[in-house]
Amino acid sequence: MSVAQEKALSLPEKLAAFRANFEAGGAPYHAPAWVHEPMHRATAELIASGAAERALKAGDRGPEFTLKDAHGDDVSSGELLAKGPLVVTFYRGVWCPYCNLDLQALQAALPAMSALGAQLIAISPQTASNSRKSERDNQVTFPVLADPGNEVAAQFGLRFKLPDYLIELYRDVFKNDLARVNGEPSWTLPMPARYVIGTDGVIAYAEVNPDYTQRPDPHELLPVLTKMQRTVAV
């Protein structure tokens, strides 16, 4: 596939292609075949738990929060909402290739969102230094905020604890120690999610998927933001 063809793919297509290559043992990961069963099992268990159905939905009021960006400055949801609608994406961290593809797709859609008066932030449990790495590696210009212990994610109903067998896989096989990456020992993550919150604080769009390998294309947000802009104009 050429670079131009790859760029033309939607985010779901890019994620599916990455997953197919990863599960086939392709570069650069070359993961042993046996690791996929526990990963699939953990996702199936999270889906079966019904956690996604209990997360905040369109029509709910979005929690107010203040978090630090990658450079240690406070970012307030209230101050952002005073300027226009807020697009919030929750992601797992710079160690997750699916999340990095998600951030890159959001960056590509950022000019269209900005043209509709919206602002974009990403929220992750990782430390500030890892958030700076997220910004560098994915060349994003929107704020990447640190949510220690997934406290804000919990307010949205997104926080969950990894099962012990997945903790062992991440830590011992992938050498991905989330206690170190996130700077705290809870081994919790947010379910990947995307929200659009209106200036009235009410959630206008919500998408939560307990399967971290699946994310909607950011351009799906544009009709929502267009409708919100027209409502304000009227």
Task: Provide a quick synopsis of the model.
By secondary structure, this protein is an alpha/beta fold.
Q: What does this 3D model show about the protein?
A:
The protein is an alpha/beta fold. Helix content is about 45%, strand content about 15%. The protein is built from 11 helices and 9 strands. The protein has helices at about 5-10, 10-25, 35-50, 50-55, 75-80, 95-115, 130-140, 150-155, 165-175, 180, 220-234, and strands spanning about 65-70, 75, 85-90, 120-125, 145, 160, 190, 195, 205-210. The strands form 3 sheets. A 5-stranded mixed sheet has the order 5-4-3-8-9. Helix 2 packs antiparallel against helix 6 (about 95-115). The longest helix is centred in the middle third of the chain and has 19 residues, at about 95-115.
Features:
two-stranded antiparallel ribbon, five-stranded mixed sheet, 9 strands, 11 helices, alpha/beta, 234 residues, globular
Secondary-structure element pattern, one letter each: HHHHEEHEHEHEHEHHEEEH
| Protein structure class | alpha/beta
What topology, given as strand order, has the largest sheet?
5-4-3-8-9
Query: Stretches where pLDDT falls below 50 for ≥5 residues?
Result: none
DSSP summary, beta strand count: 9
Percentage of residues assigned to helices: 40-55%
Largest sheet: 5 strands, mixed
Secondary structure layout:
Blueprint: H1 3-8, H2 11-23, H3 36-48, H4 51-54, E1 66-68, E2 74-76, H5 77-81, E3 86-90, H6 97-115, E4 119-124, H7 128-138, E5 144-146, H8 151-155, E6 159-161, H9 164-173, H10 178-181, E7 188-190, E8 193-197, E9 203-208, H11 221-233
Parallel strand pairs: 3-4, 4-5
Antiparallel strand pairs: 1-2, 3-8, 6-7, 8-9
